[in-house]
Amino acid sequence: MKPAICLSLFVASASPSFADQSLGVSSIHLTDETQNRPLALTVWYPGYGGTQENVGANAVFTGVIAGRDASLTEERLPVVLLSHGGLRSAEDSGAWLTAALARAGYLAVEINAPRPGMAINAVAEIWHRPNDVSRALDAILSDPDWSEHIDQDHISVVGFALGATAALALGGGEFELQTFVQPCNGTAGGPDCAWYQAQNVGLGSVDRDELAEPRRDSRISSIVAISPEYLDVFSGGLSSIDIPTMFVALGRDNTAHTSPQPNSFSQAMFPDATMADGFQICTPAGPAILADGGGDPALCGLSSEARQRMHRAIVDEIVIFLGEKSRK
């Protein structure tokens, strides 16, 4: 369903001025018969009314309360497209971030793709993810119910983990095949190497033509990459990226701290964070559920309060960066 139009007038700006406004949320479902890759888009925006719903909640993670199909302002809003998490992240795992961006005056879209059940299918995710973002942007710009509320001069992509890799590709970063196939060789180990190796899958099985295809989307005006995976896979040290870019590094050992980057890139460092801080706040039962299922309770962090503080700090840096770029 699509949101109704709210006749109330307010000023749309890329600042935290909407912190006290209600949140609206709507869903868009995209089909792709050629690739058999349906996408579920969760659209967050400053809104009023709607049926209250806890979005992104499950047994392990809390969600975010928002008004389903709430009324949407008539103002044009800057857009943020979010590609969140690694290969097996749950749907709406970035709800904490998209909701916060909506409170800050953005129309924020989280892009959820089917999780690859088998490692052989997951190898293609490195080039599927940027395609997913461009497809999502195509969909909202071609839909008049959404496009009339979009400031098309201010469209950004925020990515976390593999989603951050996609963001860099959309900004003009180009993949180097020989570097990509290295992480699962020897003892180096990429983020999902154990999973690939358990199923006897090598990264060399990637479609080489697809990996080499440029993914730059000229409609995107800035990008934020939060702890990107495969950062060393980009050829030319990311010098082909020609739009405002910010790296957000979670943790002291994050590669964004040490990998060479163009001087024009902004950076936000959070040495006391971990990669787990990119996920939702856990439920009280979350750590035990993870432990019982063979997962890592450390995904829940030290406390819900500590994660909430980290989320606020991350959002503040992103909103400041996006706001500065929108004024230039």
Automatic annotation (TrEMBL):
Signal sequence, start to end: 1-19
Matches recorded under InterPro entries: AB_hydrolase_fold, UCP031982_abhydr
UniProt KW keywords: Signal
Protein name (record): Dienelactone hydrolase
The organism of origin for this protein: Aphanocapsa feldmannii 277cV
